[in-house]
Amino acid sequence: MRLNDDNDEEEGPKTMSHCSIGHLQQEKSFVIVGYALTSKKVESFLKPKLEGLARNKGILFVAIDQNRPLSDQGPFDIVLHKLTGKEWRQILEEYRRTHPEVTVLDPPDAIQHLHNRQSMLQCVADMNLSDTYGKVGVPRQLVIKRDSSSIPDAVTKAGLILPLVAKPLVADGSAKSHELSLAYDEYSLQKLEPPLVLQEFVNHGGVLFKVYIVGEAIKVVRRFSLPDVTKRELSKNAGVFRFPRVSCAAASADDADLDPSVAELPPRPLLERLAKELRRRLGLRLFNLDIIREHGRRDHFYVIDINYFPGKVRENAWVRTYIYGFPVKPRAKPIQEKIGIVSKLLETLKN
């Protein structure tokens, strides 16, 4: 069962035997989380602090052996994964069919929906979420699948307003898929490389909100983003400016001295409603949203990206979110209580 793991060749974590895992479940009511992750993801996610504290409170992370049939391993309460490829998707779907008592984070077909930026944000647009706490939408966007020379005409016909953010159409987690460009003038649009998505750039005070969602748990952090573009700058600048993975490369903005109108987090009730509806529409429990607030409009927000199983465990609070949010089947109510204990314990720790 050797699968695609982004060409990582280093030796993975040791696995536990079926008997020893079963013994832990029966004798100590451990929550057994089987994980199938790339070595890079293991390094960024499974920090010793997370593993140690989780184990002390009854949550055990166990590596899935990719060289053995998945059904021969475990038993697991949760399967946590972030591998790619058709073979792995088929294995997981079969496992979900034959092991309905196990929570799989998340269904492979649901994850695939986020790999295409054309469909990724459609569910947000379809929601047209608006209440007393604010409005959530998506920037106007246009998909270009081929022929860069046709982009200026397509933009004109669609009525999009410059500057435009260009993102690769495929969002597969690779470094390239997170690159973006900012096009200032119509002529420079021809320099872009399809397939891509063009989004109208919305001034947002240079700050975006990363909203991490794990089950019903939500954690919000601030990140520096692209600065606002004034009309004067737009008239003086031309060309395409390329940027790396902006929100990950940027420093945290949580402790920065920001204008309160920029720094204010989105209203919690609005985020809870958005997260609940997206969980239902996407069929996912483990994802994050990149959200911006339109500068000068306190209650107007845009979702600009959605990622599955995102980010490094940088903030201690994000570690808590992972632990607290792991969903288990109804039979395991005491296990949920254990998870709550871990969450409270982690609140006392500092990175």
From TrEMBL:
The keyword Metal-binding applies. It catalyses: 1D-myo-inositol 1,3,4-trisphosphate + ATP = 1D-myo-inositol 1,3,4,5-tetrakisphosphate + ADP + H(+); 1D-myo-inositol 1,3,4-trisphosphate + ATP = 1D-myo-inositol 1,3,4,6-tetrakisphosphate + ADP + H(+); 1D-myo-inositol 3,4,6-trisphosphate + ATP = 1D-myo-inositol 1,3,4,6-tetrakisphosphate + ADP + H(+); 1D-myo-inositol 3,4,5,6-tetrakisphosphate + ATP = 1D-myo-inositol 1,3,4,5,6-pentakisphosphate + ADP + H(+). One of its GO terms (biological process) is inositol trisphosphate metabolic process. Signal peptide: none annotated. The keyword Kinase applies. Binds 2 magnesium ions per subunit. Pfam families: Ins134_P3_kin, Ins134_P3_kin_N. One of its GO terms (cellular component) is cytoplasm. Monomer. Kinase that can phosphorylate various inositol polyphosphate such as Ins(3,4,5,6)P4 or Ins(1,3,4)P3. Belongs to the ITPK1 family. This is Inositol-tetrakisphosphate 1-kinase.
